[in-house]
Amino acid sequence: MNFSGPDLNVPKKIEKTALAVCRPEEVLLAYADYIRNTEETVRIVMEKTQKPKSFFSCNQTEEQPNVLTEKQNLMRIWSQIKSNSFVIDPDQNLKVNANDFKKALNILAFGIYKTGLNSISPIEADGVLEKLLFFSDPNTIEYDELLMKRGMLNYQLGKRDPIFFDKAIFYFRESSKSTYLDKGSVFESRLMIVRSEIRKGQLDPALLELQQLETELYTIDKAYRVTGRGRNDLLEDRKKLLRYILRKKGRYEEADELYVEEDSIL
User: Fold this and answer.
1) Could you report the per-residue pLDDT of 40-86, keeping only the tens digit for each?
2) What φ, ψ does residue 32 adopt, rounded to 5°?
3) Nearest to 242 by CA among 202, 219, 209, 220
4) Which domain of life, per UniProt (predicted)?
5) Which CATH architecture has domain 139-266?
6) 117-171: pLDDT as tens digits
7) Rounded distance, CA 179 to CA 45, Å?
8) Distance (Å, rounded) from C-alpha 249 to C-alpha 82?
9) Sequence ranges of the domains in the chain
């Protein structure tokens, strides 16, 4: 059923009705449909308004092939939406509203995390985060938080298909450079790089990352001891990961010097 298009009022009405009858999955469906239909509407208008063929181009083929990839075409569509000036109906001067599009993405992302991916596939969820990153301003805490969330999602996807661990490492590496995230989140990003490397069977890069983190331990420990916010879990996680790697590399004496509680670290 076609729930909505470029008009955000449509999914809003569906949201109100769906929540009233306790069917939250229809809310996600409505906003996902709004996003897809908006993209499709922009695509169709872009194709219709392409530059007309010149009369003097008779020696050329009638239709030039689209040499862009699907992702490149999507990014062209997103750029038009983000411009907040793309006209989809000249007669009514109707434009795509970039704020509405991003609002729908945020609602969809929140709903995905709230339902624990029960109503959408992880790949689709990653697509939502990809769009949110595109519509967010770099050098902001929002952008860096999205990088970390996308890293977390790709880490989970990596448990199904190891190819996603490389993507996870990329996003964790980017978020670990943040000057906007708190130090604990930056530290956690680097620990997630270690976990991803371990999952890939790359123990040497994982160990090197942990050794480089050693210089950050005092800063993190001091910061959280002074504020009293906790996050000693980060220090304990590093110790657990280090012990795990040392044992895997046969360095049992060094590993046994690190007392940790036995539980899952990956």
Assistant:
1) 999 999 998 876 555 555 555 555 566 889 899 999 999 999 999 99
2) -65, -40
3) 209
4) Bacteria
5) Alpha Horseshoe (1.25)
6) 566 788 888 999 999 999 999 999 999 999 999 999 999 999 999 999 999 999 9
7) 40
8) 50
9) 1-48+71-135, 139-266
